Amino acid sequence: MTRATWRKPANGRSDIVNIVSAARRGLAILIPVAAFLALGSRVPHFLDLSNLLNVVRQSSITGICAVGMTFVIVIKGIDLSLAGLLAFCPMISGVLMLAGVDPPASMAAGMLAGIAMGLFNGLMVSRLTVPAFITTLVVGQISQGLALTINGGSSIGAFPDSFVFIGNGAIGGIPLSDLLLLAFLALGFFIERLTPLGNHIYALGGNETVLRQEGLSAARLQFFVFGFSGFCAAVSGLLLSAQLDTVQPTQGDAYQLDAIAACIIGGVDLAGGRGSVPMAVIGALIIGCLRNVLDLLGIHPFMQNVFIGSIIIVIVYLSGVIRRHGELATRGTL
Amino acid sequence: MSAPVTEVVRAGAAPGEGGAPPTRAPAAGKGRVWIAAGGLLKLVGRNVALFIFLTLVILASLFVENFAALDNAEVILKQSAIPAIAVIGMTLVLMTGGIDLSLGYVVGLASIVSGIMANTWLWPAPAVLAAILVLGLAVGLCNGLITQFMRVPAFIATLGAGYVLYGLAQIVSQGSIINRLPKGFLAIGRTPMFGLPSAVFLALAVAVVFHVLISRTIFGRQLKAFGFGARAAVLSGVPGARINVSVYALCSTLAALCGLLFTVRVNAAQPNMGGGVFTFEVVTAAIVGGTSLFGGVGSVGNSILGVLSIKIIENCINLLGVSYHLYLAVQGAIILLAIILGNLTNRRA
User: What percent of chain B has pLDDT over 70?
Assistant: First the structure.
């Protein structure tokens, strides 16, 4: 999924590299499709339209987080603050809404909180060179603590209808959550492919020296990327609360692992510089299908976590093997 | 930040920068103040953990009612004993430049498994203790082997492993908590010695052993060298792979011991024990204790001072009757402060 592979093979790359990358691309699409159909034929009700729309609706939370997470991983970072932000931002909005502030303004407040937290991550990473996994872990923990403190550790609910409609309403038979996921997919794709910003983000992840030589600031890109991830987390947290009509202070925990897994399954490389938003969203859908199928088969969510945790480790290992294989091939030592 | 090696390396990295203000303004009155301030800063910078600890003790004794009492000190000691064991393992891992995010989940798994062994299978206490340590060792070996030989970044490997362990703990427990554990088992951490439970002395013993391991053995030297620059260390003959795997193994073994001691303390084995919150508390303590996130710097004594510091803060939050939930956020703020302070002192030194 390198950017280069979308064009004609670059000069000087051996056939092996091209075959490896073509195989990567092919496998990344074929395996899920095959698994999808295989599951569809084995598990009753999986391929029902209502179930599929439901899968997409459930995946929308993970998917929107994965859009922001993709950029973060592309610049060699990771965002572990999702767990906290997914609860903190809607908690702010929820408290404001119940205090009588109108829903759009409250939601804007929640989103601003998410962006602020994300920008703070960016500040720590760019100016203080703190590793991303530590600063985001800390910011996540602070958000989690604040989410618990704001309402004394209990959930709130019974929000205005217009807010609940965002999570449960549909336009022309398609759930609003699905449309929101599509909108974020489009936004992410737009940034990634059609703006100079996207190019710079990939340059920062792939080869920072080039970026420096072009005279571009890494810090500004880091601010943008972490801020955007915070925004995505805030939106998906709000969507989750709208779907459930409650804000539970620990509701984010379940989505942290899934968002990372979505990116990794979608081929976003933890070593930076590689990955794309559409594939990460497909990754989110794969996880959604997986959880749905395991639910339909009656397998407990805890067992599902065991499964997804192992998948992440195996895929990161395999993508590392493929990357090193590719590097050896490029150097001509293979 | 107090390891002598650090000073040497930093001095070498930025020659002439250290002590710049005093040399520029000699003899002048203003200069003397600078020298005094610089000296104080250096003194504090070398003993950040001790400085934070003492400041907290003084502030808390002055402003928090009932803090400066003997039984409160006893409470803090009792509460610090178990995290102190865990923080030693985390310090080792951080010293290699890695992190172990599965620590809290090892605690949960060890807790429920020890409960099952002691209560359902009626194993004698020493057998349970040995089995739990072996369990921790096995988990840690997995973490270490995955990070070292499968080259998966530590935070991803241990995050994934954490979810796996959490799931396993829940499955093993079948959603229930095991209460009323046998007396022989509880004796491991509850036997009173000099007015304190034996868990405190167990922690002390572990601390002494690991202090010697880090500061007086070849392993400790190699660990520091590996943390400062893995490649250079390996090229000069340090067995990098062995060190990298053994720190994760030791960390999880100690975490499993913590799980057992927690179970003894609350007299209940539960799979939710520890968890992400405990991992975070331990990382916070290690960093407040001056352990560097970039590897190479760390000491058992300072990390334990870090544990005592955050337990004092928790204690004050309890005494002041503030919402316990705020403790999580305050911990986050402390860790940020420690990182920023560490950053500033690094730049100055």
Answer: 89
Find the CB nearest A312 among B160, B280, B343: B160
Backbone angles phi, psi at B179, to 5 degrees: -105, 180
pTM higher than 0.80: yes
Ordered structural domains, chain B, with CATH? 4-15+27-348 (1.10.3470)
Contact by Cβ (8 Å): A152, B323: yes
Find the distance separating the first CA and the last CA of chain A, reported in whole Å: 21
A198 Cβ contact partners less than 8 Å away, ≥ 6 residues apart: A191, A192
The position carrying tokens 């003397």 is B32
Subunit contact A304:B332, Cβ cutoff 8 A? no
Alpha helices per DSSP H over B64-124: 70-95, 103-115
B278 interfaces chain A, CB cutoff of 8 Å? no
The CA angle B145-B150-B152, to the nearest 5 degrees, is 100
Compare CB distances from A302 to B167, B323, B327 and report the shortest one's residue.
Answer: B167
Rg (CA), chain B: 21
Phi, psi of B196 (to 5 degrees): -125, 155
* Cβ neighbours of residue A176 closer than 8 Å, sequence gap 6 or more: A165, A166, A167, A168, A169, A170
Subunit contact A78:B164, Cβ cutoff 8 A: no
Say whether residue B327 is in contact with chain A using an 8 A CB cutoff: yes
How many contacts (CB atoms, under 8 Å) link A and B?
121
Given 3-state DSSP classes, what are the helix, strand and coil percentages for chain B, each rounded to the nearest 5? 75, 0, 20
pLDDT for residue A18: 65
ipTM of the complex: 0.79
Strand partners, A247: A156
Q: In this predicted structure, what is the pLDDT of residue B29?
A: 61
The confidence score (pLDDT) of residue B9 equals 40
Which of B106, B73, B262 lies closest to B181, judged by CA? Answer: B262
